[in-house]
Amino acid sequence: MKKILLVEDLPQKADNIKSLLKLEFPEIEIEERSSYHTAIEEIYRNYNKYFVVLLDVSMSTYDAGVEENGGIPEALAGKMILDGMYLRDIPVKVKVMTMYESFDGKSIQELDKELREDSPENYDGYIFFLVSKK
Prior knowledge:
Layout: E1 3-7, H1 11-24, E2 29-33, H2 36-46, E3 52-56, E4 59-60, E5 64-65, E6 68-69, E7 73-74, H3 77-87, E8 93-98, E9 102-103, E10 106-107, H4 108-118, E11 123-128
Parallel strand pairs: 1-2, 1-3, 3-8, 8-11
Antiparallel strand pairs: 4-7, 5-6, 9-10
Helix pairs in contact: 2-3
């Protein structure tokens, strides 16, 4: 069975993405992580389980919980994860997902160009994700 790793810290956005994936690709198994640290831990240990990683650009450093606020929000956590994958020669493709148009003063187009140059083996483009308010 094909398996995707979904890295997203916003539960509503993660649920919307999973619903869409299950609708379009019912045979795919989805594993989830919701912070920088849990994502890198999963990718570094189990990358060979996944054929693609759907990666949020901005996320908290740690999982939020009952007694934990999730740590510091990191605007470019996804880029940091891609950098780590490159350094460890992890061969999994990554699609970056975002609902923001800029990150630390960089436009999504500038970030896209930078990721293509810095992580050509992994980075496979971005998906602009807009959550509708009904």
